[in-house]
Amino acid sequence: VVLTCTLSPREPVYQGKTLSRWLIEAGSGSWPRQSLVPADEAIRQIGTNGFTIIAKLLRSHDSALKCKLLGLYYKQSFIRIKITTQNDRHLYAFAACEALGSEARALVPEVAKALSHMDPYFRPNFENWLQSLGSDADAAVPALITILADKKNPTRQTMVQTLGIISMQRRREVVPVLTACCQDTNAMVRF
Q: How far apart are CA 186 and CA 175, in angstroms?
C-alpha cells in the first residue's frame, strides 16, 4: 500500500484545491466565457502540470455495460446519485482546454483520439477550440477526415469548416477531401 501511494503521481493543487475540483467548477459554465471565473485562472496557474490528468479525462470511455446500467438508472426515479460519465469527463477536459487556450496545444493529439469515441453532439465544442488554435491543431486533421468520411455521423458537416481552418500545413491531404465535399449528398457538408 505504501509503495502504491508513493509511486502514484500527485494531482496538482492550486489554492488548496486539486485540479479535479477546479475542473468540476470550470465545467459548470458556458463558453465563450463572458468573464473569467476563478476555476479558469486556477487551471491556467496549474498549466502543463495538469496535462496528464486532462489527457486521462479525454481517454475516458464508458463501457457498454455502464451505458446499459445508466440507461436503467435514468428510467427509475427512486434513487438519485451523481454518476460521472465520459461526457462529464470530456466536459472537464474541454473546460481545461478552453482555460489554457493555446498553451494546451500539446493536447491536440489526445483531443483528436477522443473525437472518435466522444458524444457526437459534444464534438463541436472541441472543434471550436481546435479552430481557435489554427494550424497549431493540424495533428487533429486525420481524425477530422475520418469523421467527415462517416456518412452516418450527425456532426460531420461541422468538420469541413474546422478542416479548412486548421489544415494550412497539410493542404495536400485536405484539399482533395474538401473538394470531394463539394459533391457530397448532404447540403450542409457542401456548404
A: 18
3-state secondary structure of 14: strand
CA 148 to chain centre: 17
Kindly state the cell numbers that stand for 162.
474546422
pLDDT at position 177 is 86
> What is the mean pLDDT of the segment spanning 67-88?
85
Q: At 72, list the grid cell.
A: 436503467
Q: Which three cell numbers stand for residue 32?
A: 465563450
Q: What are phi and psi of 29, to 5 degrees?
A: -135, -165
Please report which helix (H) or strand (E) contains residue 64, including its range.
helix 64-75
Q: Which cell goes with 180?
A: 470531394
- 89, 60 contact by CB (below 8 A): yes
pLDDT range class, residue 40, cuts 50, 70, 90: very high
